[in-house]
Amino acid sequence: MNIQIEGLHDEVTPARRALIEERLSKLTKYDIDLIHIRITLEKDPHHQKGNDCVRIVLLVPGNTLVANKTDDTLENALFKAFDAIERELKDYIKEKQIHAIKPPSTPRGSISQIFKDKGYGFILTEEGTEVYFHKNSVRGVSFENLEVGIPVEFDLEEGREGPQATRVVLF
Predict the structure, then answer these.
(1) What is the residue-wise DSSP string for 73-84?
(2) If you classify domain 2-101 with CATH, what class do you get?
(3) Could you name the CATH architecture of 108-170?
């Protein structure tokens, strides 16, 4: 993990650095690869109090998470920014887990009707609905060799008159 801490218009004091390191240790408890973290503390040079900003940029695999918070003091903005980036990280992990748990499944069924002379047929899905397919959507086997009852996998899309298979393969 690469960490970059910078101060604009103010220095990063040892106390602030210790606070940052403490909050960073909480982020590392999550089982995720934190590639790069950049923390920018910006003191508004025109005001003694009120417009201090903290920006945290966190690079994780496949995404960049960002938190920008402004408050009366850099310390308060720092707390708010770390709370926000932790929520972003939790949401990222949750989204990643959802996609890992639910891989897209290819619909399955079996040939229920076939009209070889007209070049089309129907598939009875595992859910019990019928899906139209044209002979041009059959892959890996000749349309003429298909028979009623043969199990198939297919890609589904909405056609003009209802669902239709755009790719049909034996499984």
Answers:
(1) SHHHHHHHHHHH
(2) alpha beta
(3) Beta Barrel (2.40)
